[in-house]
Write a structure and sequence with these properties.
The protein has 294 residues and is α/β, with parallel strands linked by helices. It has one domain: TIM Barrel (Alpha-Beta Barrel), CATH 3.20.20. Helices cover 41% and strands 14% of the residues. It has an 8-stranded parallel β-barrel, surrounded by 5 helices. Helix 2 runs parallel beside helix 3 and helix 4 runs parallel beside helix 5. The N terminus is likely disordered.
Length: 294
């Protein structure tokens, strides 16, 4: 039977949207990591969690078409093997974590160790051809007001900034959320995070703006993004959906709209995929591709 005009138009509309005419679901693409609008860096700590070999994780990321990754601490990894593998696969390490929740940057007794750690980590960054390193403020200190802890974070970052500048690296400070994942952490929300960066006043200290944490803490993602970029506070972004901290499309955040806003704000850096694949890494990568196909 010859299809009628309505059937043809419906099929054409589905095709234009990247959907299968038979199911209405997004078509699988061969290399979903090669996205259309946004450059993503897949977090190989949360993806391929069952794989102990980090080299195999890098190879799995490349097999899906990703050309950039992000990591957590460098101490448990073969630095030379990671560098050689990234060179072989054509993968860029966008950022890695150098200072976590404990000992806290919000305690001045840890500042000397913080500066020493930044110095050592900058050598790793050079080996990995990486220009950003993530730092965290620290968990609450009993009896110390939040404002005082933030002042101590500022002081610690001021001490670390010259080291980062010397090596051409940017320290990216990450604010968390305390409602779901990090109860008892001292830094959450965009306003205090931007205040800290402004007080440090260094081109080598900016924010890692995790949209998952920001959504839980304050919402209005696009509005707060505009404020963050207007203040020249943001160097890097990460995403995950909520609830679940899984890939886009599994929760309540409409990421196609948010990613489109990033484009409008002329953000050209990478966006970290610090999310846990709900089922398989392949399915998560396809969901990321679909969210970026706006």
């Amino acid at each position: 039977m010859t299809p009628d005009r309505r059937t043809l138009l419906s099929a054409g509309a589905l095709a234009a949207a990247g959907l299968s005419p038979s199911t209405g679901h997004a078509r699988a693409v061969e290399k979903p990591g090669a996205t259309k609008n946004t450059k993503f860096a897949v977090n190989i700590e949360m993806w391929w969690r069952k794989e102990k070999d980090y080299i195999k994780r890098l190879e799995a990321a490349a097999a899906l078409g990703f050309t950039a990754v992000e990591l957590w601490p460098w101490e448990n990894k073969d630095q030379n093997a990671v560098a050689e593998t990234c060179e072989r696969l054509g993968i860029k390490i966008v950022q890695f974590t150098v200072w976590g929740f404990r000992p806290g940057l919000n305690d001045p007794k840890n500042h000397a160790a913080f500066v020493e750690k930044i110095e050592k980590s900058c050598e790793v960054a050079k080996k990995w051809k990486c220009s950003m390193m993530c730092v965290v403020g620290g968990d609450d200190i009993p009896g110390v007001p939040q404002e005082k802890m933030h002042e101590q974070i500022i002081e610690g970052l001021r001490r670390g900034a010259p080291v980062a500048e010397k090596h051409g690296v940017t320290l990216v400070l990450e604010a968390m959320n305390v409602r779901v994942d990090h109860k008892g952490h001292c830094l959450y929300g965009s306003a205090p995070a931007m205040k800290i960066v402004k007080a440090v006043d260094s081109k080598h200290v900016k924010l890692l703006w995790d949209l998952y944490h920001m959504h839980i803490t304050e919402g209005d993602l696009c509005g707060h993004l505009r404020e963050g970029f207007a203040a020249d506070a943001i160097a890097y972004l990460q995403i995950a959906d909520h609830p679940g901290r899984n890939e886009p499309g599994t929760g309540e955040i409409h990421y196609p709209r948010v990613l489109k806003e990033l484009k409008a704000l002329k953000y050209t850096g990478h966006v970290g995929l610090e999310c846990m694949p709900r089922t398989t890494e392949e399915a998560a990568a396809q969901a990321v591709y679909a969210a970026d196909n706006w």
